[in-house]
Amino acid sequence: MTANQDVEILLVDDNVGDILLTKEALKGVKFHNAVSVARDGVEALEFLRRQGKFANSPRPDLVLLDLNMPRKSGSEVLAEMKEDMDLRLIPVVVLTSSDADADVLKAYRLHANCYVTKPVDLDQMIKAVQAIDDFWMSIVKLPPRSA
Q1: Would you state the CATH architecture of domain 7-139?
Q2: What is the predicted pLDDT for the residue at 7?
Q3: CA dist., res. 140 & res. 12, Å (int)
Q4: Other C-beta atoms lying within 10 Å of the C-beta of residue 129
Q5: pTM of the full structure
Q6: What integer is the mean pLDDT of 122-136?
Q7: Which of 16, 36, 108, 113 could be a cystine partner for 91, CB 3.0 to 4.6 Å?
């Protein structure tokens, strides 16, 4: 990623409040982020595979994935992404309210790139999202979109 290039983020979450908060937190970061939203696991996979109404969707550089969603859970989305040769290189940050050891272990077994528990405090949530963005956009070298 270069400083002039938009960073494509797919936010997968069904909670409107968390979506708005995450998008707001991403506005105040160094890089320009283009944030797309999928409201459940089925929609997320359609977006990633560019199917149906998402045929012209951009390939995300990073996925922020909630675990607890309708129709298809975040764990199911993660499993399908990491089994798909075209999607497996996209880094996935699990950003969820669960801090259960079983959920953390399952996410890493499914090859999540990291696991972050959503803070309940508004300011801490903003700081956490900004820290995720700073790490993934400033420090980490992401795979090229064409990979």
Answers
A1: 3-Layer(aba) Sandwich (3.40)
A2: 83
A3: 21
A4: 26
A5: 0.91
A6: 87
A7: 113
Q: How far apart, in whole angstroms, are the C-alpha atoms of residue 138 and residue 49?
A: 27
C-beta separation of 115 from 86 below 8 A = no
Write down the residue that tokens 């040769």 correspond to. Answer: 85
Q: Which one, of 125, 137, 98, 106, lies nearest residue 6 by Cα?
A: 137
CA angle 6, 8, 10 (to 5 degrees): 160
**Residue-level pLDDT at 30:** 62
Quote the tokens at residue 15.
């909670």
pLDDT of residue 147: 61
Domain regions of the chain by residue span: 7-139
Is 3's pLDDT higher than 70?
Answer: no
SS (H, E, C) the chain: CCCCCCEEEEEECCCHHHHHHHHHHHHCCCCCEEEEEECCHHHHHHHHCCCHHHCCCCCCCEEEECCCCCCCCHHHHHHHHHHCCCCCCCCEEEEECCCCHHHHHHHHHCCCCEEEECCCCHHHHHHHHHHHHHHHHHHCCCCCCCC
